């Protein structure tokens, strides 16, 4: 296994890593995230077929970016907007 592919997973494994206990993630969602640039991926060509591999680091970074929820507090937002 090369250094490039050591920390990479296939699309179906990435979907399982991104899925939560109550909300599954489809492979088409993973492809959409790759297309939008949210996940860093590359194509591994072996013969005529190509496999898309996603770096585990980008999956973990995506999960931490999406997991941080900002509570919606209208009063606090208005206070911040009114502050000089």
UniProtKB/TrEMBL annotation:
Span of domain Helix-turn-helix: 24-66
InterPro entries, alphabetized: HTH_17
Pfam family, one: HTH_17
Superkingdom classification of source: Bacteria
Protein's UniProt name: Excisionase family DNA binding protein
């Amino acid at each position: 296994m090369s250094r490039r592919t050591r920390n990479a997973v296939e699309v179906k494994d990435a979907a399982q890593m991104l899925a939560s206990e109550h909300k599954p993630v489809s492979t088409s969602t993973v492809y959409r995230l790759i297309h939008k640039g949210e996940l860093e991926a590359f194509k591994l060509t072996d013969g005529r077929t190509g496999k898309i591999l996603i770096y585990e680091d980008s999956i973990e970074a995506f999960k931490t970016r999406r997991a941080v929820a900002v509570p919606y507090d209208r009063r606090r937002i208005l206070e911040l907007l009114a502050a000089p």
